[in-house]
Backbone:
């Protein structure tokens, strides 16, 4: 059950990572288009810079849980690497718990932010007048996925610490 | 001061527990928000607003660009070109290696990418010609550090984003020191090779040189395109990154055909994790900076430093020692993000040119990249091949650390090395 859920989330992470990767590519083309418009056609766009910032927000936040899953978020492993099995596992549980709590707090606040934006109909202070909930949703989705990813690590490490009973190892 | 020590301890213990830097900064800040009863809203707000900046958009673009060039084998070709020009000189291969490092630095913003790319081709070639293994390893690790000094440079983008200095000027400031450092490295390599009595190789014919250069002209032109665009003010650094990215796609996909369209999604995926890691650290650090400001720590620290009556030079010296220590624990981007909100007001107070400080800091970070235990380039180089071990790399890089220290001192003593070229820009 947890195994399936995990697979689903990791699949989701990968897909978001892929889309984010291509999103960065799209950002490059959008900004290039802006430069071309400015110099060749002498008519800068009003949207390119703003849209590329939104793309940046979305790509970076959406790829964050994939990055965590791939262990690409840089950390200080000076001490942790020196620890032995059991102590290391405990440390991983502690640090992942701290991470999960932080990400959960950001998720809740992101939700409140979006709710306020929708309620008051907030839009960006630019000619485009983009509803703010669009970029803000990236924060919610990114941090919810991060919370889930951290929680997986906790569950996995805790399960590893409990002596394996026969037949009980299908948990993960 | 008690606050400051408490904050530092809380952060360090979470960091050492192994939580990624980005989330350690975030979690420490959240803890402080709770303890000091600061407005809760700033947590998500700061993370969100940290992403709302056009200058940091250049980071994923530069990262993707260097991944494209890396996968498209442009670095290998650069080495061949340099080799054809200098291989008959004493220590020719070593010179070619450093020149290739310098060139690749000018199309990539990271040291690890530079060391890995050039190391892959240069190491086997040099071993084959009987170069001292330790010298090669040290050379590659140190040559790779040029990546963050010679523009484009991810650490300098981050520095510009936190201090609101012009990233264009910071990039330009890195050119003269970067070229000088290249010269220093070449000088040392030649000196060592002369002692070793290497038989120089046959010179390449002029025909071969021009043919190789011409064949690789597209890759060679890229740094001039990027730096030139920024220097003349034709485009912003972010726009230059976009132009460079599309340009590198065109040369690898269409002109040299070293990549195929179906390779692109995989390359993008690989690149996005690096950019995302940086973006998240920025988020955590902006939140951390906001919390520190609310606790008035930068102001108090500034007042405290002022009471010491340090001269500008002494302050920079003290900072350098502190940075060297931090460099043993953290990587470059985190160090800049963590310290600059504290240091920037002091720089202003002591009338220290932030552009000069940026270059001194970058050279200092170059040292961090090659000092054990966490010097990134040491790991990159020792991971190049099975037969390389960490001990060899560390022994090999030792003389280069001394060289880098001398260079750090030079950039500190002669600020005009860093400030002259940017002062010519409007």
Residues:
């Amino acid at each position: 059950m947890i195994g399936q859920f995990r697979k689903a989330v990791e699949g989701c992470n990968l897909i978001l990572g892929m889309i984010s990767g291509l999103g960065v590519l799209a950002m490059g083309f959008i900004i290039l288009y802006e430069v071309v418009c400015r110099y060749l056609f002498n008519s800068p766009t009003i949207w390119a810079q703003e849209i590329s910032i939104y793309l940046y927000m979305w790509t970076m936040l959406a790829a964050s849980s994939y990055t965590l899953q791939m262990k690409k978020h840089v950390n200080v492993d000076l001490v942790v690497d020196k620890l032995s099995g059991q102590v290391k596992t405990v440390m991983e549980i502690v640090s992942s718990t701290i991470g999960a709590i932080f990400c959960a707090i950001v998720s809740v606040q992101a939700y409140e932010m979006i709710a306020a934006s929708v309620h008051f109909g907030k839009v960006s202070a630019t000619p485009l007048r983009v509803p703010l909930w669009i970029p803000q949703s990236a924060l919610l989705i990114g941090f919810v996925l991060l919370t889930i990813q951290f929680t997986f690590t906790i569950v996995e490490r805790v399960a590893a610490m409990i002596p394996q009973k026969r037949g009980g190892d299908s948990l993960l | 001061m008690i606050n400051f020590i408490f904050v530092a301890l809380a952060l360090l213990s979470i960091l050492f527990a192994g939580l990624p830097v980005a989330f350690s900064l975030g979690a420490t800040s959240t803890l402080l928000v709770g303890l000091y009863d600061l407005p809760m809203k700033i947590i998500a707000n700061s993370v969100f607003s940290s992403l709302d900046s056009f200058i940091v958009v250049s980071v994923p673009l530069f990262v993707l660009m260097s991944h494209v060039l890396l996968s498209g084998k442009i670095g290998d070709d650069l080495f061949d070109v340099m080799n054809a020009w200098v291989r008959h000189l004493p220590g020719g291969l070593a010179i070619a290696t450093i020149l290739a490092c310098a060139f690749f630095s000018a199309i990539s913003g990271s040291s690890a990418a530079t060391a890995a790319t050039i190391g892959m081709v240069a190491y086997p070639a040099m071993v084959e010609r009987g170069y001292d293994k330790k010298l090669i390893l040290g050379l590659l690790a140190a040559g790779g550090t040029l990546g963050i000094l010679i523009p484009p440079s991810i650490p300098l983008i981050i520095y510009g984003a936190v201090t609101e200095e012009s990233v264009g000027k910071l990039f330009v400031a890195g050119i003269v020191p970067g070229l000088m450092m290249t010269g220093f490295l070449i000088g040392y390599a030649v000196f060592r090779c002369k002692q070793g009595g290497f038989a120089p190789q046959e010179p390449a014919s002029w025909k071969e040189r021009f043919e190789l250069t011409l064949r690789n002209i597209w890759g060679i032109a890229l740094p001039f395109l990027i730096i030139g665009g920024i220097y003349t003010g034709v485009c912003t650094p972010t726009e230059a990154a976009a132009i460079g990215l599309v340009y590198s796609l065109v040369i690898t996909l269409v002109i040299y055909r070293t990549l195929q369209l179906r390779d692109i999604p995989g390359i993008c995926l690989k690149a996005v994790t690096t950019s995302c890691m940086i973006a998240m650290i920025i988020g955590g650090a902006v939140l951390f900076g906001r919390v520190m400001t609310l606790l008035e720590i930068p102001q108090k620290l500034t007042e405290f430093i002022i009471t010491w009556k340090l001269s500008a030079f002494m302050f920079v010296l003290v900072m350098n020692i502190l940075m060297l220590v931090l460099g043993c624990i953290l990587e470059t981007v985190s160090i800049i993000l963590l310290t600059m909100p504290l240091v920037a007001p002091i720089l202003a107070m002591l009338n220290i040119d932030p552009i000069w400080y940026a270059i001194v800091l970058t050279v200092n970070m170059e040292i961090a990249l090659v000092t054990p235990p966490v010097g990134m380039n040491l790991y990159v180089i020792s991971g190049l091949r099975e037969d390389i071990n960490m001990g060899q790399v560390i022994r090999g890089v030792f003389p280069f650390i001394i060289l880098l220290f001398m260079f750090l001192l030079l950039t500190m003593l002669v600020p005009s090395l860093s400030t002259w070229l940017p002062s010519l820009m409007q």
